[in-house]
Amino acid sequence: MSLSISESWTDRLPFLEALNRGWRPLPRWAAGCWLAFYALFLFQLARGSGFLPMIDLVFIPIHEGGHLIFGYLGHALMIAGGTILQLAVPLALATWFCFQRQVAGAAFCLFCFFEQFLPTAIYMADARAQELPLLTVGDPEFVEHDWFAMFGSLGVLDHDTQIAAFVRVAGWIGMCSVTAWLAWRGLARAPENR
Question: Cα separation of 60 and 127, whole Å?
Answer without folding.
Answer: 18
